[in-house]
Amino acid sequence: MRMRRLDENHDWTFGSGRSDYATESEAISQSVETRLLSLHSDWFLNRDHGVKWFDYLKKNPNLVNMESELKKTVLNTDGVTEITGFSIALDPDTRKITVSVDYIDIYGNKTGVNTNAPNN
Fold first, then answer.
1. Residue 7 — very low, low, confident or very high, per pLDDT cuts 50/70/90?
2. What are the C-alpha distances in Å from 78 to residues 13, 90, 103?
3. Which of 99, 104, 110, 120 has the greatest count of CB atoms below 10 A from its CB?
4. CA pair distance 116, 36, nearest whole angstrom
5. How confident is the model at residue 120 (pLDDT cuts 50, 70, 90)?
6. Are 90 and 48 in contact, with CB atoms under 8 Å apart?
7. CA–CA separation, 53 and 34 (whole Å)
């Protein structure tokens, strides 16, 4: 697996040749994080793609449905074989959500991804 590496702002990197590409477990980790940050109906080629974050960032979100959708998103990411750990931290005052996922990839590596729900 190979994909263009993203910088800290989630933009593609350019100008450094082969080092602009993530491979194997790093590429899978980047893909997991990107899919978790994707907004539902935001991609014009597939209106069903992405997480329904706006449904979960409202008052009294359905945490069971959110956990189910996030786990499904991770498991449906190419290269992920198994989720070994999962947690959601919700700050009710700011409505910020942090998702932590540990998984095993097709290369046998155990990897963790921590990300905040999109806020825009």
1. confident
2. 22, 27, 12
3. 99
4. 9
5. low
6. no
7. 14
Where do we find the tokens 């959110």?
66
For 58, 81, 87, 113, the CA distances from 103, given in Å and listed in that order, are 28, 7, 12, 9
Output the six-digit token pair for 14. 């350019």
User: For 40-77, what is each residue's pLDDT tens digit?
Assistant: 888 788 888 889 888 887 777 788 999 999 999 999 99
Which helix (H) or strand (E) element contains residue 71? helix 63-75
Which residue is listed with tokens 């329904």? 52
Q: Where are the beta strands (DSSP E) in the chain?
A: 2-4, 21-23, 80-91, 96-105, 110-116
Instruction: Answer yes or no: is pLDDT of 82 > 70.
Output: yes
Q: Which residue from 91, 90, 97, 106 is spatially nearest to 37, judged by alpha carbons?
A: 97
Q: Which residue type is seen at 120? A: N
Tokens 């990300």 belong to 115
Span 20-35, average pLDDT: 88
Tell me the two tokens of residue 65. Answer: 């449905």
| Identity of the amino acid at 2 | R
